[in-house]
Amino acid sequence: MTTCGPVTKSMLLLAVVVALTVQGSAADWKVSECCTKVSTQQITETIVDFMVQHRNNHCVNAIM
Fold first, then answer.
1. What's the confidence (pLDDT) of residue 32?
2. I need a surface site. Which of 15, 21, 47, 63 has the fewest CB within 10 A?
3. Mean pLDDT within 46-64
4. Angstrom distance (rounded) from CA 42 to CA 14
5. Nearest CA-CA partner of 21 in 13, 30, 31, 9
C-alpha cells in the first residue's frame, strides 16, 4: 500500500498535462466566422493556400 501515493500523484500529473495539452490545442485552432468586407489590394506575398467563402447572411463572397 505504500506505492499508492506516488502512483496517484503520477496519474494526477498525467491528467493535468493531458488537460492542458488539449486546451492549448483547442486555443490554437481559430477560424474566423466569415469576412464581412473585402479588399482589392494587390497581393505581394506568395500564395500557398486559399479558401473560398460564399455569400451567406452578413458574410460576403471572398477568397481567403
1. 62
2. 47
3. 88
4. 49
5. 13
Q: Where are the domains of the chain?
A: 4-63
C-alpha grid cell, residue 25 = 490545442
Would you say 36 and 56 are in contact if contact means Cβ atoms under 8 Å apart?
no
CB 49 within 8 A of CB 27: no
Coil/strand/helix, residue 46: coil
Q: And the C-alpha cell for 17? A: 498535462
**Closest by alpha carbon to 31, among 6, 10, 59?**
59
Asked if 53 and 32 count as a contact pair (C-beta separation under 8 A), the reply is: no
The 10 Å Cβ neighbour count of residue 35 is 16
pTM of the predicted structure, to 2 decimals: 0.41
